[in-house]
Write a structure and sequence with these properties.
By secondary structure, this protein is of the alpha+beta class. The chain folds into two domains: about 200 residues, no CATH class; about 140 residues. Helix content is about 50%, strand content about 20%. It contains nine helices and ten strands. An eight-stranded mixed sheet has the order 3-4-5-1-6-9-8-7, with helices on both faces. A two-stranded antiparallel ribbon has the order 2-10. Helix 6 packs across helix 8, helix 6 runs parallel beside helix 9 and helix 7 runs antiparallel to helix 9. The chain is elongated, with a radius of gyration of 28 Å.
Length: about 350
């Protein structure tokens, strides 16, 4: 048995009330909050299980190949929407398997299909959620291949790299370096944008773990971009405010401080939710697969980048706050000096008259 699973994960730019969303589904549309089937409940912690919605089937033609896919959407409360195209078939010859997989390498030919499914979701939840802010061009994509017999693929490197060429030894070592096994009959090989899972049974747990890791990556990419934009706005606002008179400058600085305070609070809250999206506590193998996926996707680098930029915003907030306090103190000092001068003038007036 051979199956392909193509994921694209989109960002809605806002948190989602999954309970309200589930209640707003049409009566004929089913949804579920199913969790992991292999993992014991005490081995995994998810604050809010994502909402899974089957979207039926569709056919995609890519060159001479026509493929039927089952479509499923999964919505996460932190603001991510994952759309997955799945196709499964019995394969007896390795050549057929490789030919089918390479035809869709890099999710070639699926752009229009994914955009169409995203529009379907927008129409489906019209009235109960606003997905109009979703940018179809900003997404994280990942492809997972699954086989139930290791003999189906003698060389997994072309499958994972998406091209059938004579790869160098260095590339082979790099691709196969992230191979994990639980028993002699199964394995997982992870790369930047593809994975190969060999497992006689397929409950989908490993695919779900990889999907969660990609959701975290997308969210960190989004907030990294958001911080870049906010920093540009912040510097422009500070520069413009600095060209104003003292009283006008103070008023503008206070507005900037208020906006930055709200932005810092929002980003800190959401990034903490992203970091705590899923936690695996006791299952060693699943924990290794999940942590390896995060490492291969370089999630830590994105997390550090977000933390560093957030720190820069916080430092500017502190500096701006100190500037406002200094300016406020200067104004108070001048008021006090003026009052003393007035008091002295009135006293001198009384003495002279």
């Amino acid at each position: 048995m051979f199956s392909m699973h193509f994921y694209r994960i989109y960002e809605t730019s806002r948190e989602i009330d999954l309970t309200r969303l589930e209640r707003g589904l049409p009566g004929e549309r089913s949804a579920s909050r199913s969790g992991f089937s292999r993992l014991a409940p005490k081995s995994i912690h998810i604050d809010n299980t994502p909402l899974s919605i089957p979207l039926g089937s569709l056919e995609v033609q890519n060159g001479s190949i026509i493929r039927s896919f089952q479509v499923q959407a999964r919505i996460f409360d932190i603001g991510a929407i994952s759309v997955c195209f799945s196709s499964e078939e019995s394969v007896s010859e390795t050549g057929n398997l490789k030919q089918t997989a390479l035809a869709f390498a890099g999710q070639h030919g699926l752009d229009e299909a994914f955009t169409g499914q995203l529009r379907r979701l927008q129409e489906l939840f019209q009235g109960s959620a606003d997905f109009s802010t979703v940018d179809p061009s900003f997404y994280e994509d990942y492809t997972i291949y699954r086989i139930d017999d290791p003999t189906l693929i003698t060389d997994p490197v072309p499958l994972l790299m998406g091209e059938d060429i004579d790869f160098s030894l260095q590339i082979r070592e790099q691709v196969l370096g992230n191979r994990l096994s639980y028993s002699e009959d199964d394995f997982v090989i992870l790369t930047w944008d593809t994975a190969l899972i060999c497992d006689p049974d397929d409950p989908g747990d490993l695919r779900d773990l990889i999907e969660f890791a990609n959701v975290q990556l997308l969210e960190l990419r989004y907030y990294d971009l958001l911080l870049n934009r906010q920093m540009e706005i912040m510097y422009d606002d500070i520069e413009k405010a600095g060209q104003r008179s003292t009283f006008t400058r103070l008023r503008r600085f206070r507005r900037i401080l208020s906006a930055l305070m709200g932005f810092i609070a929002d980003v800190t809250e959401v990034t903490e939710k992203v970091d705590n999206l899923i936690k695996i506590t006791e299952d060693i193998y699943y924990a290794r697969v999940y942590q390896t996926t995060l490492r291969v996707l370089r999630v830590d680098q994105w997390r550090e980048g977000v933390a560093r930029k957030l720190q820069v915003v916080q430092q500017n907030y502190s500096m701006l706050s100190n500037e406002v306090n200094v300016q406020h103190s200067n104004v108070l000092e001048w008021i006090i000096i003026l009052l003393i001068a007035l008091e002295f003038a009135f006293a001198l007036w009384d003495a002279l008259t």
